[in-house]
UniProtKB/TrEMBL annotation:
This is Cytidylate kinase. PANTHER family: CYTIDYLATE KINASE, CYTIDYLATE KINASE/PANTOATE-BETA-ALANINE LIGASE. NCBIfam families: cmk (TIGR00017). Keywords: ATP-binding, Cytoplasm, Kinase, Nucleotide-binding, Transferase.
Length: 234
């Protein structure tokens, strides 16, 4: 096995990917990389600068002026756009409503994928997103595909936004989730699909600890098998 272990977690919006990835990264002492936050940061840049996404030249020009970074802050990961901490604002609905459209742009996806692959070459990581196990790291050591029923995902997102003081209805969130699902699964560039070798986890009726237990067991199985194979080869 390579020195750096890569865990790719893909799945639908608000199914618990980031929560699980953060907790697992803490337990395994891996770096957690929130790919979705990087797409949101780019989306925020496009919104604030009123950029026309149909103009390929302007999209590439905009990307050339974007600098992204993520820093660990305990169990949280802070996302920076051109040295500005945008961790909170990128979770607001005006960004959520545009992120699927912006992230579907070929130029944007290539820009982010290159950034993510660069991070993955440096250390063991857990990365969550929509195409981590299929495009970014197709040879990841462990691939997880997470899902949950739409009503469960909407309620989780609603609770998260209400805790942050946002005034939005559950029906608005459900509409946004379903629209994002459609965009994510039907876009031409890197659509959301389950990798053929990914471990499927439905989190609808599972606690965080139960999900962590399932994935941790899968991780230990892979590590143990690798050690066994290495010992037989000696």
């Amino acid at each position: 096995m390579e020195q750096n272990f890569i865990i790719a977690i893909d799945g639908y919006s608000s199914c618990g990917k980031s929560t699980i990835a953060k907790s697992l990264a803490s337990k395994l002492n891996f770096l957690f990389v929130d790919s979705g936050a990087l797409y949101r940061a780019v989306t925020l840049f496009f919104i604030e600068n009123e950029l026309e996404t149909a103009d390929e030249a302007k999209v590439n020009e905009a990307l050339d002026s974007i600098m992204l970074a993520q820093l660990a802050d305990g169990l949280e990961t802070r996302t920076f756009l051109n040295e500005r901490d945008v961790s909170s604002v990128i979770r607001q609905m005006h960004v959520s409503s545009r992120v699927s459209k912006i992230s579907a742009l070929r130029e944007v996806r290539h820009f982010i994928v290159n950034k993510l692959q660069e991070i993955g070459r440096s250390q063991s990581i857990i990365m969550d997103g929509r195409d981590i196990g299929t495009v970014v790291f197709p040879h990841a050591h462990l691939k997880i595909f997470m899902n949950a029923r739409p009503d469960v995902r909407a309620k989780r997102r609603y609770a998260e936004l209400m805790a942050k003081g946002e005034n939005i209805s559950l029906s608005e969130i459900m509409d946004n989730l379903l629209l994002r699902d459609q965009h994510d699964t039907t876009r031409e560039e890197s659509p959301l699909v389950q990798a053929h070798d990914a471990y499927y986890v439905d989190t609808s009726d599972l606690t965080e600890d139960e999900v962590l237990g399932l994935i941790a067991a899968r991780y230990r199985e892979i590590v143990d098998n690798s050690k066994s194979t290495a010992s037989r080869a000696v």
